[in-house]
């Protein structure tokens, strides 16, 4: 956003002075008189205890939300680290695996420290906010207050409370994503660490292998793409025995390989289809909600700018009125001057008469 | 992303080879002499995959550089040969559509077919050309694409609204300066008017 706030205190001061001159405000508070007399005092000098505390709390909330944002970034980075570690494991690059997992561990330490810090901050902020509330009640109970002051205090308190609630919610979200990451990581670890890979090779059906001619042999190698999610358990699990059996059997009966993999895959394939549909629907739904958010954002911005347009309109009207008044004054001046010429001639005639009389006296 | 062939077959339960009911293929990107062999290959692979697909099941098989997607629904089977980039979901929704269309236009007559029919089915040929772009087949993909475009447009809109805000800001400044200046002008005019009344 461009300018989230506008400092219009100068305008406010000038307006109050003009109103005072007209005599519209009955000056209730002595503070206002002091303000009017000491024009040079900066507008922020009248900060009360309440204001100071509120500003401090606001600052602390801001810092805490920044920390939470950093925490969120750390958890996201850890997801990337998990994926990288999985990819490298598939390539049997254990050195890199060790490096990646060490980075991942450091992240967890950092994450835990940050969470502890943030929790402490939030509890401190809660206490400070309740102090502020009691302070407000005390100031009001003093007796000498105006409605605006009460409104101002309540508005400030509510604002700070909502900001704190938003920060705590953010923290909750970050913690849930982190726990999900941990779970996913655990699952993937399990997937790779089990030596009992799922495949017991079913009794290969020799009868079907006969009519299949050689062109099918080329189907062996690229099995890759579709079957990759299931082959890694095969490969990493057995390593030598089962995988090599499969590979050697492929040249002889590629159809058997396909049948076996098909058997494994038909059930996951059905799930995958509906799952992928569900995922696509979810993404569509989230896109739509994003769009609605953007629309509301747009609407707020346009209304804010509408207020600006009204101000411009008022300013232009004011300047129009001023210019019209000035024009009429000048016109009056012009008519007076042009009409007064007759009088001016008379005045000059009188002056010249006096001069002649004066000259006569002297000479 | 392209579809090379679409086949509709009748899958007799495990007894005989499936019977081809309709066939459409796009072999224009092969050399002239390879075309017939490619067609044979398509027919053969289609038959094999269809015979291996259990009823009410979907299947995808990787063969050389093609993915063969098969969907068997109560004995009527649709097989599609697509390349690796074609999204799987759109492939299956396309096969769904083909099967629905076939049942609508041919009813139950296919159950009695015993030999490969050689009559071309025009719908299949135009489906082949139309659905080269997966968005056509898969409504979800189309919707997602349109939504992304809309989002881009909205982002641009927000940027222009921000620029508008800045311009409005500068306009506010200028108009307030103008009103100040006109006020000074008015006071000045009144002053010149007030002093020389005697003359």
From TrEMBL, chain A:
One of its GO terms (cellular component) is Golgi membrane. Residues 180-189 have a biased composition (Basic and acidic residues). The keyword Flavoprotein does not apply. The keyword Disulfide bond does not apply. It comes from the Eukaryota. GO terms for molecular function: SNAP receptor activity; SNARE binding. Residues 271-333 form the T-SNARE coiled-coil homology domain. Keywords: Membrane, Protein transport, Transmembrane, Transmembrane helix, Transport. Residues 178-242 are annotated as: Disordered. The chain crosses the membrane at residues 342-362. Gene3D superfamilies: 1.20.58.70. GO terms for biological process: endoplasmic reticulum to Golgi vesicle-mediated transport; intracellular protein transport; vesicle docking; vesicle fusion. Belongs to the syntaxin family. This is t-SNARE coiled-coil homology domain-containing protein. It comes from Thlaspi arvense (Field penny-cress).
From TrEMBL, chain B:
Its main location: membrane. Residues 139-199 form the V-SNARE coiled-coil homology domain. Residues 7-123 form the Longin domain. Belongs to the synaptobrevin family. PANTHER family: SYNAPTOBREVIN HOMOLOG YKT6. SUPFAM superfamilies: SNARE fusion complex (SSF58038), SNARE-like (SSF64356). It comes from Thlaspi arvense (Field penny-cress). The lineage of its organism: Eukaryota, Viridiplantae, Streptophyta, Embryophyta, Tracheophyta. Interacts with SYP41. Core constituent of the SNARE complex required for membrane fusion at the trans-Golgi network. It is a lipid-anchor. One of its GO terms (molecular function) is SNAP receptor activity. This is VAMP-like protein YKT61. One of its GO terms (cellular component) is Golgi apparatus. It is found in: Cell membrane. GO terms for biological process: endoplasmic reticulum to Golgi vesicle-mediated transport; vesicle fusion. InterPro entries: Longin-like_dom_sf (IPR011012), Longin_dom (IPR010908), R-SNARE_YKT6 (IPR045848), Synaptobrevin-like (IPR001388), V_SNARE_CC (IPR042855). Gene3D superfamilies: 1.20.5.110, Longin domain. Keywords: Cell membrane, Coiled coil, Lipoprotein, Membrane, Methylation, Palmitate, Prenylation.
């Amino acid at each position: 956003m461009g300018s989230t706030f506008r400092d219009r205190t100068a305008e406010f001061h000038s307006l109050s002075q003009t109103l005072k001159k007209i005599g519209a405000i009955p000056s209730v508070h002595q503070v206002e008189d002091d303000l009017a007399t000491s024009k040079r005092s900066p507008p922020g000098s009248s900060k009360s205890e309440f204001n100071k505390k509120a500003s401090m709390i606001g600052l602390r909330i801001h810092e805490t939300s920044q920390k939470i944002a950093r925490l969120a970034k750390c958890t996201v980075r850890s997801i990337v680290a998990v994926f990288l570690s999985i990819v490298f494991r598939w390539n049997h690059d254990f050195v890199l695996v060790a490096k990646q997992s060490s980075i991942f561990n450091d992240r967890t330490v950092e994450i835990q420290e940050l969470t502890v810090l943030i929790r402490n901050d939030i509890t401190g902020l809660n206490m400070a906010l309740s102090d502020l509330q009691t302070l407000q009640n005390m100031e009001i109970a003093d007796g000498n207050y105006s409605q605006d002051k009460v409104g101002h205090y309540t508005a400030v308190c509510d604002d700070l409370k909502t900001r704190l609630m938003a920060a705590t919610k953010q923290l909750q979200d970050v913690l849930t994503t982190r726990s999900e990451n941990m779970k996913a990581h655990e699952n993937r670890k399990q997937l790779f660490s089990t030596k009992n890979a799922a495949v017991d090779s079913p009794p290969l059906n020799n009868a079907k292998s006969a009519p299949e001619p050689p062109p099918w042999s080329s189907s062996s190698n690229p099995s890759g793409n579709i079957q990759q999610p299931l082959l890694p358990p095969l490969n990493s699990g057995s390593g030598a025995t089962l995988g090599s059996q499969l590979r050697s059997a492929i040249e002889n009966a590629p159809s058997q390989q396909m049948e076996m993999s098909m058997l494994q895959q038909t059930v996951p394939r059905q799930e995958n289809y509906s799952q992928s549909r569900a995922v696509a629907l979810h993404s569509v739904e989230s896109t739509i909600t994003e769009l609605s958010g953007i629309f509301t954002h747009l609407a707020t911005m346009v209304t804010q700018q509408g207020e600006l347009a009204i101000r411009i309109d008022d300013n232009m009207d004011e300047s129009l009125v001023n210019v019209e008044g000035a024009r009429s004054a000048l016109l009056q001046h012009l008519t007076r001057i042009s009409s007064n010429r007759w009088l001016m001639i008379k005045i000059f005639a009188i002056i010249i008469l006096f001069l002649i009389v004066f000259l006569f006296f002297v000479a | 992303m392209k579809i090379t062939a679409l086949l509709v077959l009748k899958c007799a339960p495990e007894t005989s080879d499936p019977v081809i009911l309709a066939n459409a293929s796009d072999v224009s990107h092969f050399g002239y002499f390879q075309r017939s062999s490619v067609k044979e290959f398509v027919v053969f692979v289609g038959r094999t995959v269809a015979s291996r697909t259990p009823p009410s099941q979907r299947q995808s098989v990787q063969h050389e550089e093609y993915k063969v997607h098969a969907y068997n629904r109560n004995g009527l089977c649709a097989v599609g040969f697509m390349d690796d980039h074609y999204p799987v979901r759109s492939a299956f929704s396309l096969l769904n559509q083909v099967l629905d269309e076939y049942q609508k236009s041919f009813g139950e007559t296919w159950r009695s077919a015993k030999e490969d029919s050689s009559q071309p089915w025009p719908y299949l040929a135009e489906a082949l050309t139309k659905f080269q772009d997966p968005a056509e087949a898969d409504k979800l993909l189309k919707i997602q694409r349109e939504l992304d475009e809309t989002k881009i447009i909205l982002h641009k809109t927000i940027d222009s609204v921000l620029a508008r805000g800045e311009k409005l800001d500068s306009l506010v400044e200028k108009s307030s300066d103008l009103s100040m200046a006109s006020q000074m002008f008015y006071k000045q005019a009144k002053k010149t008017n007030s002093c020389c009344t005697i003359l």
